[in-house]
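Here is this case:
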Amino acid sequence: MLRKAAVTTVSNGSYLQGESNGRLPTMDSGQPAQEGKVVLKKKVTLLRGISIIIGTIIGAGIFISPKGILKNTGSVGMSLILWTACGILSLFGALCYAELGTCIKKSGGHYTYILEAFGPLPAFVRMWVELLVIRPAATAVISLAFGRYILEPFFMHCEIPELAIKLITAVGITLVMVLNSTSVSWSARIQIFLTFCKLVAILIIIVPGVIQLIKGETQHFKNAFAGNDASVMGLPLAFYSGMYAYSGWFYLNFVTEEVENPEKNIPLAICISMIIVTVGYVLTNVAYFTTISAGELLLSKAVAVTFAERLMGDFSLAVPVLVALSCFGSMNGGIFAVSRMFFVASREGHLPEILSMIHVRKHTPLPAVIVLVFSPSSGTSDCNVSGQTSASVGSSNHSRRCVHL
């Protein structure tokens, strides 16, 4: 059912070109792979690339707890400036990755670029840190958030059982694994749909906010720069919160070899995605301030829910579902992209060879997907760990526990 990928590598990280001695050609060498060899096909179009980037950047934070920047900047005006500045700074970083993606046409993202620039040892360390620490923690957090929010409409007036959250979390991770193991095309189509849901959720907040502005609800923008002065320690923390909210613009570079016409589509997808996300984030925060004051926003544990309750009544019940879909999209996009890092690392000899194998009929890196989902600690995180930023969804009239983002 599985076969070794048609692309092989040498110890210094460069690809072997097809030669008369029987070595295998690369995907970009312009030479056909030998008969019977299996490769990952180029199925990531421009639209799918945009959905991967937007789908992984936009998670639950913008809907639930966008108050880190406001708290550390001290005023409404400075917070909006910082949201814009972080978006522009992220765009610059994304453009650097766009250039790397067009110059080094290899999948793997960070791992591949470190391998090419600094050699195998730093790349090896970076990959194992991703495998053992970064990716399991990120998957656990976003999947537990998905489990809590998808159950929220069923437990509006009582506490959600922790066992139920963990069971739904396991189901969500399994669904993502099956989806990414079964079909690249279907995984990309689901990602497009979930990205559309994220954008609809943002529009549901932005449109009423614009209507409020048209009605003259601008009292919270008067003296926008008045308030607590941003401290020397506060601004770096505010930038950290903002940059974390925009993280994910690099994920398309993890699947470079599967992108159609990467010289054109990677820069276009990155630019379009970052513009959409930056404008969406800034306008969403503007919409919040048309209805919620700075003090109320800092006290709210679920800003989007508070906003929806005041303007849309019972429609606020849809917010947890939209947040859950947003979390599921982040899970799907992250596993789709990062599994290619492990696939490439295996191809380079930094992971067991089986992880560089591809399903002969489905053309998916099945072992790399499975090891990512079942990597250490992916199921050990607890949604009530102290010291994390907490945010709960549901009516503010009820006493609820918190889910940590």
About this structure: The first strand starts at residue 2 and ends at 4. Strands lie at 2-4, 357-359, 390-391, 403-404. Confidence is low (pLDDT under 50) at residues 7-34, 377-405.
